[in-house]
Amino acid sequence: MPYGLLREYSIEGYIDFSKIGTGVIDMNVWKYFVGENVASLTIGLDAYVEENKGIDEVVLEFYDNQGMAAAYHMGNKESYSGQFTESIPLNGMVNSYKLTNTNHLGETKVHCGSYASDDDTNVLYMNGNTPTKLTGDKVSGVQYYLDDCGTLYSNMLYLVKIIVKYCPQDALGNLDTTETSDYRYYYRWMWTTTVFNGYYYNVQDYDNINLTLSLDANVSYTTNADYQYGIVEYNSPSSVTASGSSDTVYQNLSARTQLVTYKPGKNDAKTYNTQMYMIAGLENDYNVFNLRKNGENESG
Domains in the chain, ordered, with CATH? Predict the structure, then answer.
């Protein structure tokens, strides 16, 4: 009987015979096509392994502002030289044994997901910027979360750390993954929206796309050091107002800032008023920080 193309098992590429056996490993393809609950990710390597060395696996670690959100393990391949297309599950709707909460060193990570209920016991809390497991009793007034490490979501921006586990063979011919000194590391961004889908079929590496973004700022100012200022953020019902020096303004700006207004302090006779607009240049009303479209819920 006929079979269709199994894309995740396909390999494309070419061989540079002058590099065979040199240990050169280059990453030359990174592109993805995002669907509703699956992202088709194509990654390409030119790998010319040395004698008695090899690649055990390639691990993609996805990072957000908490740390590692998930890791995708590409293993059990005869060769890692060429282009490979992998199906990356999104939103927890598709199960995959390759997408885990374990990093390339075998360490289990945690990540704060949805809010935990009062009845949930295996929960996390944020210790500063670090998601941490609760080991004692819950404390009143502390927000607790469920652990969703190992799940990736739509409409999120992830920094992806690509680890090529290039290592020597031991006496029995098995790859010794405890020897990490020759691992290779690469970095790419992955924005799990459809915004780049139009590039998938004609761009090999999204790292080479030249995007045009804009930042418009119209500012007038006085020489006075003290200001009263207000900050308006995306999706915020009201502005945040405070007083302080001009340096304090910039220390309090968040990634969601849309508009800053400030004026001289009360003791200044001058009457200058200032408005500084911060327009990030993202189209379709996308939120600047988590890149969800304004009005979308957590699962949207």
Answer: 7-111+148-208 (2.60.40.2060), 113-147 (no CATH), 212-294 (no CATH)
